[in-house]
Amino acid sequence: MNIIIEGAGEVGSHLAKMLSAADNDITVIDNSEARLAKLTAYADIVAISGNPSSIRTLREAGVDHADMFIAVNPGSNQDINIVSAILAKRIGCKKVCARVDNEEYISYDNKYMFTEMGIDLLFYPEKVAAAEIVSLLKHSSSTESMDFARGKLQMGVFRLEEDSPIIDMTVAEFATTFAQMNHNFRIVAVSRDEATMIPKHDTRFRYHDVVFIIIKRESLEPLMNYLGKSSVEVNNVMILGAGQIGEMVAKGISRSVDDVKVIDSDRELCLELSEKTDDNVICIHGDGRNPDFLLEENIREADAFVAVTGNDEANVLACVVAKKFGVARTIAEVENIEYIKLAEEMGVDAVINKKLITAGKIYKMTLSNKVRFVKYMSGTNAEVLEYNVAPDSLITRKPLKDMAFPENAIIGGVVRGSESFIAVGDTMIEAYDRVSVFAMPDAVKEVDKLFNSR
């Protein structure tokens, strides 16, 4: 695809790197030559220096024959993204999307207005990140998990500690042992050190592996018990950071828990948030990085601790401190992708990254219309996709064992009507099935071809 990205900030640069690696032709527009120079040093792109809302600049970038235009200007005024996206569509670009920082724009009542203007997708990374955190808090498991088909299938993410019963087992041995308990599942990936692999039957588990498992909803708790992971009932939440994400998390979780306590060093933010939230949300002015202060605020009584300040190091360290005080679930918002692995190794239960979440939404637009969603799981460079199977698609022609499925991809589970099951070699995929796929980046395009009508 021919893709033009407006904005070479953190989000735009990450998208440029990811999409160029997927064999797309990428052009990036930015009015900062320094940002463009930094990006061209590690990404295969064409750089255009100029005003992103200038028609002349947009034409110079080739918007009139582009397949997609992504407006992610890093400036404080993100209305420029809407203007440039509308112009790009009018000039001739096939699909356009824009980043916004105004919750009003993405409300149900207003979305159609922007669609009429020609914008195919509006996305608010902070809003999506907050929704992800709220979803994690509402899950009872002490590990990261993800729903497919409204929860009929789930993916559990398990870090193997030194007392894990499956260390030194092979995948085949683990499958046999757990299957004897009448539970079906599929191990779709193992992340080890800096690499992610699609496991074979003889892959042997090691200490500190991160294991990704697709399983039916009713079998998740027995699997957690077997792996020594506990369920956590979240009723008391402590949030560090009263900015956009902190506010949205507090509002999103307040109706389903007893108490929410938000801590921030900015007194004005605390006062503003206290006026916008429910009575069970308490806003405290103070330094949440200070362990003594956290103790004074009864952190030991919290079931979950969420750190969403603008400082990655502060978020990670605060979660580590919370874990040492006995908090069952910790979630950190981390913007530096290189810190994600470090945060997980330090014991943070879940790491949220706005760039990865945004990338999944946009990457979906580069694939077929049969992809329901794309998600990047923290701790791995692989992608999780859910497909609606098209009639007469290649994937419906043979059993999976006879299908030339890409080596770096694996089908986890299938939902067919009201039935859900784990995919095995003899499974025949049928039209209109909903299928979960775990794939490395180099395999996604090949997987996409299998799920489309010929």
Summarize the structure.
The protein has helices at residues 10-21, 33-40, 55-61, 79-91, 108-116, 125-138, 171-179, 217-226, 244-253, 267-276, 291-296, 312-324, 338-345, 354-366, 444-450; strands spanning 2-6, 25-30, 46-49, 68-71, 95-99, 121-123, 145-148, 153-159, 185-192, 195-197, 210-216, 236-240, 259-264, 281-285, 304-307, 329-333, 350-352, 371-376, 383-388, 409-416, 419-422, 434-439. With 454 residues, the protein is α/β, with parallel strands linked by helices. The chain folds into four domains: 2-123, NAD(P)-binding Rossmann-like Domain (Rossmann fold); 138-226, 2-Layer Sandwich (Alpha-Beta Plaits), CATH 3.30.70; 235-327, NAD(P)-binding Rossmann-like Domain (Rossmann fold); 356-450, Regulator of K+ conductance, C-terminal domain (Alpha-Beta Plaits, 2-Layer Sandwich).
